[in-house]
Specification:
Shape: globular
Helix content: 25-40%
Number of domains: 2
Distance between the termini: 31 Å
CATH architecture of the largest domain: 3-Layer(aba) Sandwich
CATH class of the largest domain: Alpha Beta
Oligomer: single chain
Largest sheet: 7 strands, mixed
Length: about 375
Amino acid sequence: MPIRRFGGHRSLVSHAPKLSYGYTKMNVSKSGCRVFSANSTTAGAELAKKITERLGVELGKAVVYQESDKETRVDVKESVRGQDIFIIQTIPRDVNTAIMELLVMSYALKTSCANNIIGVIPYFPYSKQCKMRKRGSIVCKLLAAMLAKAGLTQIITMDLHQKEIQGFFTFPVDNLRASPFLIQYIQEEIPDYRNAVIVAKSPSAAKRAQSYAERLRLGLAVIHGEADHSESDMADGRHSPPLSRTTTGHKGLQLPFMMAKEKPPITVVGDVGGRIAIIVDDMIDEVEDFVATAEILKARGAYKIYVMATHGLLSADAPRLIEESAIDEVVVTNTVPHEVQKLQCPKIKTVDVSMILAEAIRRIHNGESMAYLFRNITVDD
């Protein structure tokens, strides 16, 4: 195992067989660099620990905790003047507390005269609220504005729910991809994966599934029909007419009549009989749709079913539902802490993505190109 140096520290860096990055020395003498964790929970700080171990630097000295009245408090214990600061924040179940921890730490470092403050947020919260809903709001855009106001100058994230979210920010956003790690898991950990078919649980997920299928040289299947709960079918805010009022004279334009949607019976477009079915998506939160999809695939002849997703939120009683379902294995990355869920459900497996996050930090600090991390990556990945 090779020994590498980062900023004067010695570290052992293990490389995956097919995923390796060209580590070089972090130029700490250039302007100084510190890596902090904004999470007050032990589970949330695990990813920060793995990243700093790969970089061979110590985690910055800061204390993040909740006061007795539940107010968030951050005490930075060292000077950060003129330095590049990376704040690693994973999002546990208490999303709002994690956001406040990140905002308060960012503002504390800003007022302490840090040079650049880069947020490392593998799973960006509120990303599902990135479109207008009936009488709702685009909360994701609000959060982007709050982070900029708090002092962040850049963020590193992974597999945004919608790529267009990058346009909400007034500073650079590096949206890394977890697909190389998940594809490597398929190749190395799924026996006879050549007999598999990649499945999109709805037409809206077909592009991602197609990208996996093309890279693995596998077939593609899409679930279409009543089980599809695509976001495009939800109210988008335009179905909010004003209160009716009595008018005289002009009665308005006569617009073409739009027929209501009627979903067809459930259909599996593609052959899954006698095959391994691999369902891919960007996140797995409430698992009812995945469980229903697995039952459909089982009825169509699939003999083994995997679910691959970047972010394993696994809310509510998701572990129990997975354990009792036809799903054989759920594979997610460690962008979100889910150790408790793994204890409840042995079917949940984890892929470590700290390698690419550490390399992104090193390249940004040294002023190197990020293009190396996006080799052969397309917008659909």
